[in-house]
Amino acid sequence: MTMAPRRQRLRRSLIIISFILFPITIFYFSPVLIIMGATAGVLAGAAIVFLCQFLSALILGRAFCGWICPAGGLQEACFPAQARRVNGKKSDWIKYLIWVPWMGTIIYLFTQSGIHGVDFFFMMESPISLSSPAQYPIYISVTALIFVLALTVGRRGFCHTACWMAPFMVAGAKFSRFLPLPTLYLRADADKCVECRDCTAQCPMSLDVPAMVQHGNMHNNECILCGSCIDACQRQSLSYAFGVNPVEKAKDAHLREK
Ligand code: SF4
Ligand code: SF4
Questions:
Q1: In a shared domain, residues 106 and 71
Q2: Nearest atom in ligand 1 to 196's CA
Q3: Is residue 1 domain-resident?
Q4: Are residues 87 and 28 in the same domain?
Q5: Is the per-residue pLDDT at 257 higher than 70?
Q6: Least distant ligand from the CA of 184
Q7: Could you tell me the distance, in angstroms and rounded to a whole number, from the CA of residue 208 to the centre of ligand 2?
Q8: Do 249 and 160 lie in a common domain?
Q9: Ligand 1 pocket, mutate which of 186, 206, 238 (most atoms under 8 A from CB)
Q10: How far away, in angstroms, is 236 Cα from ligand 2 center?
């Protein structure tokens, strides 16, 4: 068995540590506490975290998902048991069917109650999420959902189908591209690519990386900027870059010319 490149060992260590810390952090990602806060007109910790995810995506895309997401850590720990690729074309939409009504409910509740304050620890007994056994069933249910989807749907199945956080970052990345802002992105040199597909074999989001390379557009809503494809490519066809994505620049210039 070959050892993963150092960057990927670091990345996997970070997301596994994040998963180990999940009993402490789980309520800051809660899709329920944000609703309870909205009912009371309070911005709960989860609301602030989701806002930070949106803002981070303006410059880092979905790097949160690839590098520090606790749910990502649990799912990647499942890879030895289930590494089947996911046909994202169908499953990727499921999370939006959940997210849109959920977000609509939150916005509606805030329009009814207003925003009277910010309480990062709203409805929490302590800053540590699992501070009493009564809260263990919540933790077990959430981790079971992530675990079951990772094992049944395939690689990072929860990210594709049910993650309520991913759409915040997809929205942030889209807004960043619309402006356009300088951002972290994948750069490809199609001339170096021999379509060996080593990159795709390593992609935790099951993306068709060589097709993205050949089309000259490395943007994909499901790309979590994990860098696995970069580290898998023996031809150095792929790399990280930071700035206004040349594809967006070209579009912008085209629109100005019109
Ligand atoms: S690993 Fe590199 S050379 Fe192989 S298909 Fe991917 S980008 Fe092309
Ligand atoms: S395309 Fe590359 S950076 Fe994006 S998710 Fe796949 S392996 Fe990670």
A1: yes
A2: 4
A3: no
A4: yes
A5: no
A6: 2
A7: 9
A8: no
A9: 238
A10: 15
Question: How far does residue 122's CA lie from ligand 1's centre (Å)?
Answer: 48
30 lines ligand 2 (CB under 6 A): no
Per residue in 88-124, pLDDT (tens digit) is 778 999 999 999 999 999 999 999 999 999 999 999 9
Asked if residue 53 lies in contact with residue 169, where contact means CB atoms within 8 angstroms, the answer is yes
Chain mean position to CA 49: 13
Q: State whether 157 and 208 are in the same domain.
A: no
The pTM of this model reads 0.93
Q: Could you tell me which of 148, 135, 172 has the C-alpha nearest to residue 33? A: 135
160 Cα–ligand 1 center, Å = 24
Q: Looking at the structure, do residues 22 and 150 belong to the same domain, yes or no?
A: yes
Residue 205 lies in a domain: yes
Last residue within a domain, chosen from 173, 200, 217: 173
The 10s digit of each residue's pLDDT in 135-170 is 999 999 999 999 999 999 999 999 999 999 999 999
